[in-house]
Amino acid sequence: MKFLFKELHIKDFMGIKDFTIQFKDKITNIKGENATGKTTILHALYWIFFGKNSFGKSKFDIFPLDENNQIIPKKYPEVTLNLLVDDEPIKLSKIQKKSCEYYYNEIPVKAKEYDEKIKEFIDEKIFTTLINPVFFGDNYSWQEQKRIILDNFEVTDTVIKKKKFAKIKKDIETFGAEKVLAKYKDKVTKTKKQIDADKATRQYIQSNLEGKELSSNKEELKTQLQTNKDAIKELDAAKQKVVDSENKLAKIINKIDIEESQFNNSVNIKKSNIKNSIQNKKNEKAQLLKQYKELNVKLKSISDTCSYCGLKLDEAKINQQKKQLQSEIKEVINKGSEIADKISVLELSLTNVNDKYKTNEKLLSEKQKIESEIETFKRNFNEVLYDEYRNKINTLEEQLQDYDSLSKFQKDLKAAEQSITINTKEEEENEILKDLVIDYQREYAKLIAEQLNAQLKNVKIRTFELQKNGDIKETFEITMDGVPYKSLNSAGKIIAGVELIQLVNKSLDINFPIVIDNKESITKDFDIPNQLITLEVIKGAALSV
């Protein structure tokens, strides 16, 4: 895409009242004393495109001022630029009133539409990079500089075709050298970690195996273990018979205890009933005794004279009363005698109650039989021998466990050593491939620098630094006549910048006008395909083209 400025008209913009520039296709030299408006022309170009000054500020004073630095009323800054973009004429106009008016090819448009049309053919940062020779070197990081130049810079890669790079050729062509290098570095790191882990495992196993060996055959140990388990199984069976018989005996004894308890309960109930009967009879006897005493008192109290008048009473009636009381007394005595006899009988029956339990013969016989069986079973179970078998089993199980542990250690040791061997070989192969990629990067970076610098005259670019360990470090260092760009004076930076813009032009396929300020400091002429606009200080001269 080629840009060519044709005409710039500035009116009431900052310090310029009315000025028109007819640009030449090759070089347009604008001259004038300091403060006559040369830099204002540069500000106007930035403003017509992006609404900023040449310092990148969007807020700056563009209204013209009178001798008292007051804004002149009804003076509206106006800038119009006629240009060609790939030979297509375009006219850009802005008039700053209360708000800014935008015109694209003399058609009024909104600010957003105007900005979008500008962006269709030039980006703000690219605009600044191409119009200002020192912007590229002063404002971009070396990473950005490298990206801008190399992203679209075509390099004929003759390095990858070399026979020594055959193993990495396909990967580099598919993924790029940086990703391939990262892959092999990652592989080297991982294999080293695995080797270190395997060596630590080997050392741990060797320390555990030190002084230990498999003393006997595993099958022999298993046979001995089974023999002892069979023997203890027989003893367990005998022991179980003892346990079973003791459980049976416990049940028999429990039955006997239950019957004895039931018997004792029955005896106690009988005794309790008899005692209650005896007590009841004694209570009856006491009542009769009381009644006997009361009747005797009545009998003795009968008198043959009246207690009130002293006259003799009827003797027949008196005898009748005495006879009646004597009969009642006799009846009480007879009842008392009967009760006394009954008490004697009950007391005798109480002494005759059997309170001693006699065990059931059947249960007793069964109990004796089981006790005899237990004795027999106990003779068949040898506690000491049982403990010996159990100890032998524990010992044999530990030996088998040790055997398995040692076997596993030996197996793991062999696996660790094999892994060390395999990973060491893989690490060596990946180290070789990693170094091969670095070697390729070094040669390719050198090739880029050669092909890049072949297109430059005064400027040289270094794209890599060789490290002490043999690795290469990416960089993008600009020098001119051996002097780093940052150390160049203003004229040197402009000369270098113009040359660098040619690379950017090729990389981005853009040809844009270049504006050189302070041209008076530069004695060199530029033979470039770009339209060149120079701003030169001429003492005492008015602003002119």
Description of the molecule:
Strand 8 (459-466) and strand 9 form a beta hairpin. The protein has 545 residues and is of the alpha+beta class. It has helices at residues 38-50, 111-121, 124-131, 135-139, 142-150, 166-175, 177-209, 218-300, 315-351, 361-380, 383-453, 490-508, and strands spanning 3-13, 16-22, 27-32, 78-85, 88-96, 100-104, 107-109, 459-466, 472-480, 483-484, 514-516, 532-537. It starts with a strand and ends in an 8-residue tail after the last strand. Among the domains are: 1-122 and 510-545, Rossmann fold (3-Layer(aba) Sandwich); 218-380. It is built from 12 helices and 12 strands.
Structure in a nutshell:
With 545 residues, this protein is of the alpha+beta class. The protein has helices at residues 38-50, 111-121, 124-131, 135-139, 142-150, 166-175, 177-209, 218-300, 315-351, 361-380, 383-453, 490-508, and strands at 3-13, 16-22, 27-32, 78-85, 88-96, 100-104, 107-109, 459-466, 472-480, 483-484, 514-516, 532-537.
Strand proportion, as a percent range, falls in 5-15%
Got a strand count?
A: 12
- The helix/strand series, from N terminus to C terminus, equals EEEHEEEEHHHHHHHHHHEEEHEE
Task: Average the pLDDT over all residues and give the rounded result.
Answer: 86
**Rg over alpha carbons:** 65 Å
The N- and C-terminal alpha carbons lie at a distance of 27 Å
Number of helices: 12
Major sheet strand order: 2-1-4-5-6-7
Overall 3D shape: elongated
Look at the helices and sheets and give the structural class: alpha+beta
* Fraction of residues in helix: 55-70%
Pick out the low-confidence regions.
none
Largest sheet: 6 strands, antiparallel
